[in-house]
User: Which sequence fits this backbone?
């Protein structure tokens, strides 16, 4: 393992400043781990370990995109198919032209819907299907990050198109997690599983402004919920293994393939470029479920980016004020990190940008 002096300093100084009390970090080059580290506490009085199970929030969204891509490869859907082809009730309220590609690129115009965590799965799907698109939204051209809605719909498509009719979380486990040997990763935990794993479960806490709100998908009650865009969890090194697979063009450690190279290229290419994201108020480029490095626009306050040294081809996804996974094909670099403190957007963006900068510099990858 490398010394990673700058990288450790970023994590430890922000920990001292109260932004988080613990963190996990995984780094690999060309499929070889160079860091698998744990810092501080996972929860009060419990040390963080490399095998601590942490909530990834939106850093898990690419898993859903890859699950859908498995059905695309099998010929069961096309990216430009209308969603209503598979979920007819989705066509309500003027949504008949929204396609799967629109959902994956956050250009569908259904960022919000009136559902709650007390609704069951079918109720959530029904409420999203009944929702109206946002006014003056041009499908495919107007962009705005969809935190939850589109990911429920993508997961429902997976369920309906799966020949075995598996629920999304079972399909994802069978087709993505198990082949990658992501044994400690899941989208939910039953109360019995949570109790059995309690000593290994870390929590994310708000460490920023007093009015910062946090949906506690890592609490015993919420952990039972499957939230395709926000509830994936596991040791962060398992997310790193996912990005290693993508860097290896879909190959698995045993030599078989999870995806074809062409599918990996399609997922991580720019499908949305140069458009202001109405949620983040910044220009951010998108692949199919992946955030593509957008530093070329010169925005010093770019949210959920990969620091100043990442190549234009870097791709990945961040989780709200807490985590990130990324791959940089030009350097064979995979990084996954989670902090257990949510300090507010401004503090987190400075933290994550500084971390990526330090990683590239410690690995002698900075220009």
Assistant:
């Amino acid at each position: 393992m490398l010394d990673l002096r700058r990288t450790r300093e970023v994590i430890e100084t922000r920990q001292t400043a109260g932004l988080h009390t613990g963190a996990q970090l995984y780094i690999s080059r060309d499929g070889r781990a160079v860091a698998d580290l744990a810092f501080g506490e996972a929860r009060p009085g419990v040390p963080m370990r490399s095998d601590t199970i942490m909530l990834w929030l939106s850093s898990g969204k690419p898993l859903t995109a890859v699950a859908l891509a498995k059905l695309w490869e099998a010929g069961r859907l096309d990216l430009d198919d209308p969603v209503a082809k598979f979920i007819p009730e989705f066509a309500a309220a003027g949504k008949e032209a929204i396609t799967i590609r629109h959902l994956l690129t956050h250009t569908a115009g259904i960022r919000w819907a009136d559902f709650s965590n007390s609704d069951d799965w079918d109720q959530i799907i029904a409420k999203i299907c009944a929702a109206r698109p946002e006014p003056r939204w041009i499908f495919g051209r107007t962009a705005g990050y969809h935190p939850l809605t589109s990911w429920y719909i993508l997961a429902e498509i997976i369920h309906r198109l799966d020949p075995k009719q598996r629920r999304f979380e079972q399909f994802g486990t069978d087709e993505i997690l198990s082949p990658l040997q992501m044994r400690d990763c899941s989208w939910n935990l039953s109360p019995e599983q949570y109790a059995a794993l309690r000593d290994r479960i870390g929590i994310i806490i708000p460490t920023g402004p007093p009015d910062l709100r946090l949906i506690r998908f890592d609490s015993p009650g919420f952990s039972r919920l499957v939230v395709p865009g926000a509830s994936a969890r596991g040791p962060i090194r398992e997310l790193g293994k996912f990005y290693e697979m993508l860097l290896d063009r879909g190959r698995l450690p045993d030599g078989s393939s999870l995806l074809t190279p062409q599918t990996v290229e399609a997922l991580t290419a720019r499908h949305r470029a140069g458009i202001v994201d109405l949620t983040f108020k910044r220009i951010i480029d998108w692949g199919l479920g992946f955030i593509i490095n957008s530093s070329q626009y010169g925005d010093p306050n770019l949210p959920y980016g990969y620091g100043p040294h990442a190549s234009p081809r870097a791709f990945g996804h961040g989780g709200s004020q807490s985590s990130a996974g990324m791959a940089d094909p030009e350097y064979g670099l995979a990084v996954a990190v989670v902090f257990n403190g949510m300090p507010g957007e401004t503090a987190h963006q400075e933290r994550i940008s500084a971390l990526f900068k330090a990683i590239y510099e410690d690995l002698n990858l900075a220009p």
User: Anything to note?
Assistant: The mean pLDDT is 96.
